[in-house]
Amino acid sequence: MYLQAIYLDYATDSSCLSYARALATLLRAELIVGYAPPHGGCMTDEEVETARVRILDAVSDGASGDQSFCVRIARHGSIGWPTVGGIIVSNHCERHPTLPLWRPSSETTIRNAKAPILIPFGNKPELERGYLWGVSLAYRIKVSVVFYHTTWPRDGVTSERGEEHWHSGAEEVARRAEKGDRERGVASEPIVERAGSVREGVHQMALYRRASCIVAQQDANVISGGYHDELIRYGHLVPLVLLPKGGV
C-alpha cells in the first residue's frame, strides 16, 4: 500500500481534524490540511494569512511533537489533492475518483485501533485489489482481517449455515484473499452468512466483531445503487474506507 499522507479539507471537515491527526499518527503518514474559500470565492492576502494561522493553531493543538503536518491554502478554486499516495478523511465527500476515502462517521477520534478490519467480498475477482489494499492496511497497523460475505439461500439447500449457500465464484475469491493474507503474515477469518441485505449484514458484523473499520471497493461496473451507496446513504457506526472504482 503506497501511502504518504492523510488529506483533510478543513473548510468542510474541520470536525474530523482530531480523527485525521490520530489516523496519520497510526499510519505514520504526514497530515496535510487544506483550505479553499467556500462557494468558489477568492481570498485576499490578508484572508489567506488569517486562515493559515487559524488552521495551524488548530492542527498544532494536541499534535504530538514528532508528527509531520502542513497546511495548504488555495486562494481560489479547489485545493487540488494529488491523485495517488494518500487517503482523504471526510464525512461530506461521497467518493473520490483515485484516492481512498475514509469516512469516520460520528467518531471524533480513532477507537478500537487494534481491532480487526472488516472486508466485505462478493464473487468478482476483479475487485481483488480492494482486498489486497485492506490486507496491506491490516499489515501496516498489525491487526487481523475478517473477510465477510453475505449470500442468498441456494435452491434445494435447507441448512442455515452460511457456508452451504456460497454465491457462485465467492468461494474462489475467499481462497485467493486468504492466500494473500498468508503471504503477508496477516491473520484472517472468513465469515459467510445469510443476512436480510448486504448493508445490514456488513453493519451488524462490523459491530459484532468491534471492527476498527470497514474496507470496501466500489465496483466499476455498477454506476449507482450498489451496497457501497447504501453504506454511505444509510450511515454507519463503524468508520468506512471506500476505495475508488479503478482500484488503488
Task: Describe the overall structure.
By secondary structure, this protein is α/β, with parallel strands linked by helices. The protein has two domains: 5-103, Rossmann fold, CATH 3.40.50; 117-243, 3-Layer(aba) Sandwich (Rossmann fold), CATH 3.40.50. Helices cover 31% and strands 19% of the residues. The protein is built from seven helices and ten strands. The protein has helices at 10-13, 17-26, 45-60, 128-141, 170-184, 198-208, 227-233, and strands at residues 5-9, 30-35, 69-73, 86-89, 101-103, 117-120, 145-150, 188-193, 213-217, 240-243. A ten-stranded mixed sheet has the order 3-2-1-4-5-10-9-6-7-8, with helices on both faces. Helix 4 (128-141) packs parallel to helix 5. The longest helix has 16 residues, at 45-60. The chain is elongated. The model has no long low-confidence stretch (mean pLDDT 81).
- Note the run of SSEs as H and E: EHHEHEEEEHEHEHEHE
How many DSSP helices? 7
User: How would you describe the shape?
Assistant: elongated
Given as residue ranges, the uncertain stretches (5+ residues, pLDDT < 50) are none
The CATH topology of the largest domain is Rossmann fold
List the domain count as a whole number. 2
Would you identify the CATH architecture of the largest domain? 3-Layer(aba) Sandwich
Characterize the largest beta sheet: strand count, sense, and whether it forms a barrel: 10 strands, mixed
- How large a portion of the residues is in β-strands, by DSSP E? 15-25%
**Class from helix and strand fractions:** alpha/beta
The portion of residues assigned to helices is: 25-40%
CATH class group of the largest domain? Alpha Beta
Number of DSSP strand runs:
10
Provide the spatial order of strands within the biggest beta sheet: 3-2-1-4-5-10-9-6-7-8
